[in-house]
Design brief:
The complex is a heterodimer of chains A (507) and B (413). Chain A has 507 residues and is α/β, with parallel strands linked by helices. Chain A is built from 17 helices and 22 strands. In chain A, a hairpin with a 2-residue loop joins strand 9 and strand 10. The longest helix of chain A is centred in the middle third of the chain and has 16 residues. In chain B, strands 2-1-3 form a three-stranded mixed β-sheet. In chain B, strands 4-5 form a two-stranded antiparallel sheet. Chains A and B meet through helix 2 and helix 3 of A and helix 1, helix 10 and helix 11 of B.
Chain lengths: 507, 413
């Protein structure tokens, strides 16, 4: 089968998401579709999957034009999609999820669930996927959930399988397993489209790479000959620095000291259990882990957004376990939160207002009850220049900026004062390569100025590149402290999955 | 979405709190038995069948009850009943109700079997209303409009029934229910208006419309408001069983239809393609949508069917009981049905159980106002609603609503 997208254009009010895009894919090969967030990858795939109607252009299968008005049409034409956020009903079993939409039934629509189980077993044996048809989805690890998605696609006999950012939620070991599955699919004569923003992965698994920038295909690359930096340049439109440049750290005195910290939520679930560590002045400590292993709660406890159920937190020797966020802020703590839209910014307020959001009550910006906007605007102007925030004006609503620029607003606000400790959670999630480069350099600069830095990220490459010391969290506990220069990502991945390199599985 | 469930300690805080509350409630009931229920001497007679009346000495029974409830409460506070909590609770509540009835009837006697029969009868509109709620909410549409649909059904049932006979009245009621639910469907699904607000609007619309028509049309033309209601049908053989025969099998068609509705809804919801898709759409519509299931069509259809079921429940008033329509005749039963949905954890059998509890509360209230208890009748009228509050707040604990209930579906997300 040959799949062809010919001159696809899709416009949304104010933006052209896809601009005259041409792509072809044959079964038996892997096409990597690479581009930054907002480059139009997902829109293109939604067009292919019948969720959007293209404004111009057509989709051809074996040179026959197709009209997809719903996912059902695309499925019928042999296209399957594994979405970035899994489309699985959490309370259903594997078998129920797999057959949803194509249920084997008898009279009155009676469900033949035994037949569904058999179908799941057959496919998982054939493709070596190892699935229990009766397991409930919400009890399964993400890697296994992804296999359920793949079985779903295979059951519908998809000739072309589209994976949208499939590795974002996987541990390094699961990623290796995933690549094996992709190879099996290709050997079985299916075509694979692999959407990603990770260059390494595209290079290691694809037969061809197509690069998308601002809605256009800006070029194709051959993974056999192209280098990472060449592709990155195509993605961004200018040469970029891919590795983090930093000198070795000069760790000073202890700044943050956490001992035996425990966090329990309102439902009584323990998210952080007996965690102890310290961060010294002038060093970056990274926290790695698969999402949902207590990192979010750890950061919230450190920044005062969540009560600690036990243990102590000290900053420069002062106990702040029970201090509120503003007190912590005044003691020199900066917080770059993991969700910039929910916690970092007020989208409806202007860039200038967001830039003074933590300081509007300082004497510098207020006379009694009245805010001194002249002073605030002055500071905003200088921060916009200094931190290279690309915004039409300082009055622009912060929510309308691109992800990278929103993040720069937060970084500017948090880092533009004398600090003792910077806590950054997912500092570059959903941020374009150019801004990543900038934010990383800013964090390293902060370290070199003698600030203690704690980085929490689920992007293993990021924590490994930035950190001077690396902690791994698993099920609410710190299970390892490692030297990022001396361990491989695979080794860290084992800790992240709860096992140890020597094969001992931890409880 | 959290990817790894963090191990839970033995009992969550919420469970602990609930467990303590259950214990304290038992102690409270024990105190009520000891100081209040044991205050009236005399024997209470519960007539079971024509030839047999169960006699309970009210005072000793209340004293024994106080001891038993107190002991259960103490054990509950001390170590809990674990998985037997609900069984224990059901037993304790049932015994307390018996104690209460004994107190109320002391010195006299009353027909217990008749009261049970009344319980089942009165649970009909609540059961059917709750099934309507389940059909909607399982597919992701919150149906606050059950009350309005019941009321509309009652009105249409009375008018059509007066003109063409009770069976056509039932059909007319169902059609009215579908009409009102179609309104909910269009606003909630097509225009994505907040479902709770649409539901409330429909309730007030229905109340206003039926009251207006009742005053302007039914009052001057009483011939449009006189239905020949269904008479009880005794199921052969089954109705000869003592007590149960009268309570369950000497009833109008409404009771049999509502029991059948519970069975059929359960079967369809958990055993068929339609059920699987409904539950999928209520939990995670995007998952169903990306697999080619037409989410909106399914929701429309479910809301319509729900409207028919609620309309049928509304027909119970004119055609199952009094033979006529009165303004606001449903008086909030639709909201009680909503509580039954939650109490029954979105399961038809659970909803039936809840409806029976509410039916019992109503039946007791009715009996009480006939017996001379000294409790003002206005207070007794509140009883079913107080039971609703207590049940929803205290006994239900945490139940899990369909995740997508109340959210409009946007295919492009």
């Amino acid at each position: 089968m040959k799949l062809e997208l010919r001159a696809i254009t899709k416009r949304f009010p104010g933006v052209i998401a896809n601009d005259n895009v041409n792509l072809t894919l044959n079964t038996g090969e892997v096409l990597a579709l690479i581009g930054e967030n907002g480059a139009g990858k997902s829109t293109l795939m939604s067009v292919l999957y019948g969720m959007y109607k293209p404004d111009e252009g057509e989709i051809l299968i074996d040179d026959v034009a197709q009209v997809f008005s719903s996912p059902a049409d695309a499925i019928a034409a042999g296209i399957g999609m594994v979405h970035q956020h899994f489309m699985l009903v959490p309370v259903f079993t594997v078998a129920e999820n797999v057959v949803l939409g194509v249920e084997p039934t008898g009279r009155f629509g009676k469900l033949h669930i035994d037949e569904a189980r058999k179908m799941v077993r057959e496919i998982s044996v054939k493709y070596n996927l190892d699935l229990d048809p009766d397991a409930i989805i919400e009890d399964l690890p993400v890697g296994v959930q992804q296999r359920v998605e793949i079985v779903k696609v295979l059951l519908r006999d998809a000739k072309v399988v589209v994976f949208d950012e499939p590795t974002a939620v996987l541990t390094p070991n699961e990623i290796v397993e995933f690549f094996e599955i992709v190879n099996t699919l290709v050997k079985a004569g299916r075509g694979v489209v692999f959407i990603t923003h990770k260059l390494k992965e595209a290079l290691s698994v694809a037969n061809r790479i197509a690069v998308l920038r601002r809605g256009k295909v800006v070029g194709e690359a051959d993974p056999a000959t192209a280098s990472e930096s060449e592709i990155a340049e195509m993605m961004v439109g200018r040469p970029v620095q891919l590795t983090v440049e930093k000198k070795s750290a000069h760790a000073g005195e202890v700044v943050l000291s956490v001992s035996d910290l425990t966090v329990i939520d309102a439902d009584g679930r323990t998210h952080v259990e007996g965690v102890s560590f310290s961060v010294h002045a002038g060093e970056i400590v990274g926290v790695a882990g698969v999402q949902g292993n207590g990192q979010t709660e750890l950061v919230e406890a450190l920044t005062g957004l969540r009560k600690a159920a036990g243990g102590t937190i000290t900053l420069d020797g002062k106990d702040l376990t029970h201090s509120n966020p503003r007190e912590r802020h005044h003691m020199g703590m900066a917080h770059i939160p993991e969700d910039r839209q929910r916690q970092g910014l007020v989208g409806g307020l202007s860039v200038a207002e967001n830039l003074v959001l933590t300081r509007y009550h300082d004497d510098q910006f207020s006379h009694g009850l009245v805010v001194n906007w002249d002073a605030a605007n002055l500071v905003a102007d200088s921060l916009i220049t200094e931190y290279d925030i690309r915004t039409p004006s300082k009055e622009t609503g912060a929510g309308t900026l691109s992800g990278g620029n929103q993040q720069k607003v937060i970084v500017a606000r948090e880092l533009s004062r004398d600090l003792r400790l910077t806590i950054a959670a997912q500092p570059t999630r959903g941020v374009d390569v150019g801004s990543i480069e900038y934010i990383h350099s800013r964090i390293v600069k902060e370290r070199d100025a003698g600030t203690a830095v704690l980085i929490v990220s689920t992007e293993l490459d990021e924590v490994m590149a930035l950190s001077d010391r690396l902690l791994v969290m698993y099920r609410g506990k710190v299970v390892a402290e490692l030297d990022p220069k001396k361990v491989s990502p695979m080794e860290v991945g084992l800790y992240m999955a709860g096992s140890r390199p020597d094969g001992v599985v931890q409880k | 979405m959290s990817t790894t469930e963090i191990a839970t300690p033995l009992m969550s805080l919420e469970q602990k709190k609930r467990s303590r509350n259950v214990g304290l409630s038992l102690i409270f009931l024990a105190l009520v038995s000891a100081f209040f229920l044991s205050a009236r001497p005399g024997d209470a007679g519960f007539k079971l069948v024509e030839s047999f009346t169960l006699v309970l000495p009210a005072q000793p029974f209340a004293q024994a009850l106080a001891v038993v409830l107190g002991a259960l409460g103490a054990v509950q506070l001390y170590r809990g009943f674990g998985k037997w909590t609900n069984v224990m609770l059901a037993f304790a509540t049932a015994m307390f109700v018996v104690g209460f009835l004994a107190w109320a009837t002391s010195g006299g006697s009353f027909n217990l079997t008749g009261m049970l029969q009344d319980t089942v009868t009165r649970s009909v509109p609540i059961t059917l209303g709750a099934i309507a709620g389940i059909l909607c909410e399982r597919s992701g549409i919150i149906n606050i409009a059950i009350e309005g649909q019941l009321l509309g059904g009652a009105f249409a049932g009375a008018v059509v029934g007066s003109l063409y006979g009770p069976w056509f009245g039932v059909l007319g009621a169902m059609a009215m229910g579908v009409g009102l639910s179609a309104l909910l469907a269009v606003f909630a699904i097509r225009f994505r208006v907040d479902q709770v607000i649409v539901g409330f609007a429909i309730n007030f619309f229905s109340l206003g419309l039926t009251s207006f028509l009742s005053q302007r049309v039914l009052t001057p033309h009483p011939e449009y408001n006189i239905v020949k209601p269904f008479t009880p049908y005794a199921v052969p053989l089954l109705s000869d069983i003592p007590v149960i025969g009268v309570a369950l099998f000497t009833q109008t068609y409404f009771v049999y239809i509502s029991l059948f509705a519970v069975v059929i809804t359960t079967w369809f919801m958990y055993r068929t393609r339609w059920g699987l898709r409904t539950r999928a759409v209520g939990e995670y519509p995007q998952a169903a949508g990306t697999l080619g299931v037409d989410v909106l069509k399914l929701r429309y259809r479910n809301v319509w069917i729900a409207g028919a079921v609620a309309g049928l429940g509304g027909a119970w008033w004119p055609i199952g009981t009094v033979g006529r329509f009165d303004q606001n005749i449903t008086s909030g039963r639709g909201f009680i049905a909503l509580a039954a949905v939650i109490f029954g954890r979105w399961h038809p059998v659970g909803a039936l159980t809840a409806a029976l509890v509410f039916g019992l509360a109503e039946a007791i209230q009715l009996k009480m106002s006939n017996l001379d208890t000294g409790i003002p009748s206005e207070f007794l009228l509140m009883a079913p609603y107080i039971v609703t509050l207590v049940v929803v707040a205290g006994f239900v604990g945490r139940s899990r609503a369909p995740k997508a209930a109340g959210q409009a579906y946007d295919a492009s997300k």
